[in-house]
Each structure stands twice: as structure tokens, then as C-alpha cells.
């Protein structure tokens, strides 16, 4: 659906940049505006400050960094990052006008500043659209929270913003999704909340993958171990930054064009830092009041309310979710969506035996079954944490080698009409 008429001017649209990497770095004689109304000029200025910051090695992550360097841009011609910055302003205006009218951004196709956006998916987070610039595909996630639901205990806008700041200010991890976020602050003059996040496009998720049909245990072991290894490596990096993901599931594990696994969706994340009111330093865990996220992948301890009515999360919660994600990948099965039944199933003394038998029915190698079981221990203290070295050992013992250039998946066909498949040559030794 195209935007046929310009959206009304927004006088009280705010982007909170007071804590961003861009706002904290010296970019020359002029500093980016902060704590001021973001007029069209200021939003474009923000995009250009992002570009300036990324011109220096090791500096903040912005649109130019996301899209790659642009050499020899002719005078008077907008760079890709400037074009996208201008287009994002128009998208923000359009989304804000829809929020003011009490509706969300419609599905379909939209055109802003020469960029076409096409609808991909919807969820509790809002809507995702795809676009191309410089022959490269990207996605934009648009969140519009209407006034009735603007006040929530867990603010996924600020959660994702803070996580992206932490990730973008450090070395890039190959199994974590990076992005640039624009998000307005909640205020009385403009009650709806608008959040826009730009990511590189990765064409698939683990939910698009079926279990391995292969009677060679060595190949199946290498492939399953490689998937677990990549996701665990990404989780290790998040945990090293004191970030609990809280929503590991097949839909949130993207598969890139080269065939690697990439963790996405940081809206449910919690950070173990004093700035977070839900962090309890004495117990070094998170006491969340925002409800259960993705019940089918939550560990049993989350199903039990703490004495103060909160849900207690720590790193072990993510390892359980990873275990159930791999179980779902192997068997195509998930837990019940009904919470009470789910809790009974998770604590059932026969649960592990049933899970093991289900995986064996899908010809899953015994070593992979054992690793999944260790991730899905009922007692969070018993769950395995050193997963990356274990998967490396499994790959080596099954006759494979680990190479960063090798990926567990491959795409068959031509984009966008291609299909995701297992790369059965993963880890094979070249004679």
C-alpha cells in the first residue's frame, strides 16, 4: 500500500539518543542534538551523524556501517545511507499518523523517498517489511504501540535499543544480528510509541528447516552440532555482556545467505546491570513482571511464580530454550501451548525418556540426544554451559573439521525463489 499523501508534521517526535554510542562520541566540532524535538531536519541529521561516526575505525555503529562503505559518491548525489535516513523519516511520519488515527501500519507495499517497502510478517512486535538499496536486501521492523498499551512493565523498545548499543560498540559477532534503531520517547503530548529498527536481511529461520534425513550418524552429528555450536556461541557473547535473551526459539534463529545461524529479536532481553530495576545483584538474576515469553520454550522454573509474583531468569533459562529449540528442529514437535499442561510436562519424571525416544524416532545420533538432554535438565544448576567446546569435540570425533567458511545450511535455487537445505558436506575433510 503506497502512501499517497504526505503524513502530517510531527512536532513532538523524540528519539532518545542521550545514552547512545553516537551521542557519547566526539564527532568533530558539532555534536548531534539530544533531548530536543526531532524535526525532519534533525532526523536526517541523526542519520548523517551516524555516518560520520562510522567513518572512523572502532567508532559507533550507524547506517553507513550497516550498509557498507560507499566510495566515490558524486557531489550532489545522496549516498545510500543518506537516502535511507531520509526515507526512514518518512516511514516514521507515516507510522505516527497511523498511530494517531488509532490504527497500525497496513500490510502491503509502500513507497517513501524512492525506496519501496514490502510486507514480510507480523507479530506482537509490530510488522516487518523488506526493502533493497544498492542491490542489497534489508528489513525494517516497525513497532506502533497505541496509547492503551503504551505503559508496560518490560519496554521492548528500550530493551532492544540498549542491547543493540552494547553489541554495536564491541566487535561484531557472526551469530548475532546487528541493527540501527530509531525510537521516540513516551510523552504526554504524543502518547503512541513508534520504534523503527533496520537490519540486514537474512532469508530464513530454523522454523523453515526439517530434521536431517540421513542414515550416516557422522554427517547428522556434524550438522546438528554445528547448529548448536553457532547458536551457543552467540548466546555466550550475549551472556558475556550480561544479557539474557529470554526468547530463544526457531523463529528467532535466522539463517543467513551463506547458511549460518544468527540470533535475532532482542525485544524480550534483560540486562544484568544496575540500571535495570528488574536486576537483583544479590542473586545475580532477573525478576521479571512482564509475563512469560514463548511458553513452549520456557524452562520449568519460569512456570513457577516467585514469592513476590515475578518470574526469575538467568543464563540457564537460555540454555533450556536452546535445548527445546534443537529438540523441535529434530522432531518437529513442541510443548503444549497451555501453560498448566506445559508445566506438568516439563516436570514429568518420564519427560526426558519421552524426549529421547522421540529424537531416536527421527534417527537422531545418540551424542546429540545426550547434549539436548543436558540442556533440558529440570534443575537449572545441572544444565550444561560449556556447549561450544563439546560441539567442537563432536564434530571432530565424527570425522569433521571446524571452519568459519563452512556453514550447516545452504540455499538451493535463486533468490527469492530458493529453498533452505542442510549442507551435508559441512565439516568434511578434503582429501
TrEMBL record:
Lineage: superkingdom: Eukaryota
PROSITE patterns: PROTEIN_KINASE_DOM, PROTEIN_KINASE_ST
Keyword Transferase: yes
Signal peptide, first to last residue: none
Keyword vocabulary terms for this entry: ATP-binding, Kinase, Nucleotide-binding, Serine/threonine-protein kinase, Transferase
Gene3D superfamilies noted in UniProt: Transferase(Phosphotransferase) domain 1
Pfam families tied to this protein: Pkinase
Gene Ontology terms for molecular function: ATP binding; protein serine/threonine kinase activity
All residue ranges annotated as the Protein kinase domain in the record: 114-410
Classification via SUPFAM superfamilies: Protein kinase-like (PK-like)
PANTHER family from the UniProt entry: RIBOSOMAL PROTEIN S6 KINASE
Entry protein name: Kinase-like domain-containing protein
Organism this protein belongs to: Favolaschia claudopus
Amino acid at each position: 500500500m503506497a502512501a499517497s499523501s504526505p503524513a502530517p508534521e510531527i512536532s513532538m517526535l523524540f528519539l532518545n539518543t542521550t545514552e547512545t554510542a553516537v551521542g557519547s562520541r566526539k564527532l568533530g566540532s558539532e555534536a548531534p542534538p539530544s533531548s530536543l524535538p526531532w524535526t525532519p531536519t534533525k532526523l536526517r541529521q541523526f542519520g548523517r551523524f551516524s555516518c560520520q561516526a562510522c567513518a572512523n575505525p572502532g567508532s559507533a555503529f550507524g547506517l553507513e556501517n550497516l550498509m557498507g562503505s560507499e566510495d566515490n559518491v558524486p557531489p550532489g548525489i545522496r549516498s545510500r545511507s543518506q537516502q535511507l535516513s531520509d526515507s526512514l523519516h518518512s516511514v516514521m511520519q507515516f507510522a505516527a499518523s497511523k498511530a494517531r488515527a488509532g490504527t497500525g501500519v497496513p500490510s502491503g507495499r509502500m513507497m517513501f523517498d524512492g525506496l519501496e517497502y514490502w510486507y514480510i510478517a507480523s507479530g506482537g512486535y509490530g510488522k516487518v517489511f523488506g526493502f533493497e538499496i544498492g542491490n542489497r536486501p534489508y528489513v525494517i521492523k516497525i513497532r506502533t504501540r497505541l496509547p492503551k498499551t503504551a505503559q508496560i512493565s518490560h519496554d521492548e523498545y528500550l530493551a532492544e535499543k540498549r542491547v543493540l548499543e552494547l553489541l554495536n560498540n564491541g566487535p561484531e559477532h557472526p551469530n548475532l544480528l546487528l541493527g540501527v534503531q530509531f525510537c521516540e520517547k513516551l510523552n504526554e503530548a504524543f502518547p503512541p510509541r513508534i520504534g523503527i529498527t533496520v537490519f540486514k536481511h537474512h532469508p530464513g529461520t530454523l522454523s523453515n528447516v526439517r530434521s536431517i534425513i540421513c542414515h550416516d550418524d557422522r554427517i547428522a552429528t556434524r550438522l546438528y552440532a554445528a547448529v548448536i555450536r553457532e547458536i551457543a556461541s552467540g548466546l555466550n557473547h550475549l551472556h558475556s555482556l550480561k544479557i539474557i535473551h529470554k526468547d530463544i526459539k526457531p523463529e528467532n534463529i535466522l539463517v543467513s545467505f551463506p547458511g549460518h545461524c544468527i540470533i535475532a529479536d532482542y525485544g524480550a532481553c534483560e540486562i544484568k546491570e544496575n540500571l535495570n530495576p528488574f536486576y537483583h545483584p544479590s542473586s545475580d538474576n532477573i525478576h521479571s513482571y512482564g509475563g512469560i515469553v514463548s511458553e513452549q520454550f520456557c524452562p520449568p522454573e519460569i512456570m513457577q511464580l516467585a514469592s513476590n509474583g515475578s518470574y526469575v531468569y538467568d543464563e540457564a533459562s537460555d540454555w533450556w530454550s536452546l535445548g527445546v529449540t534443537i529438540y523441535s528442529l529434530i522432531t518437529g514437535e513442541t510443548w503444549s501451548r497451555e501453560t498448566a499442561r506445559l508445566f506438568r510436562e516439563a516436570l514429568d519424571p518420564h519427560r526426558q525418556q519421552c524426549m529421547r525416544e522421540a529424537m531416536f524416532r527421527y534417527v537422531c545420533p545418540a551424542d546429540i540426544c545426550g547434549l539436548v538432554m543436558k540442556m533440558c535438565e529440570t534443575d537449572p544448576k545441572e544444565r550444561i554451559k560449556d556447549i561450544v567446546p563439546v560441539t567442537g569435540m563432536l564434530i571432530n570425533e565424527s570425522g569433521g573439521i571446524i571452519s568459519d567458511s563452512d556453514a550447516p545450511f545452504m540455499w538451493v535455487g535463486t533468490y527469492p525463489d530458493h529453498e533452505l537445505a542442510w549442507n551435508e558436506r559441512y565439516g568434511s575433510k578434503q582429501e
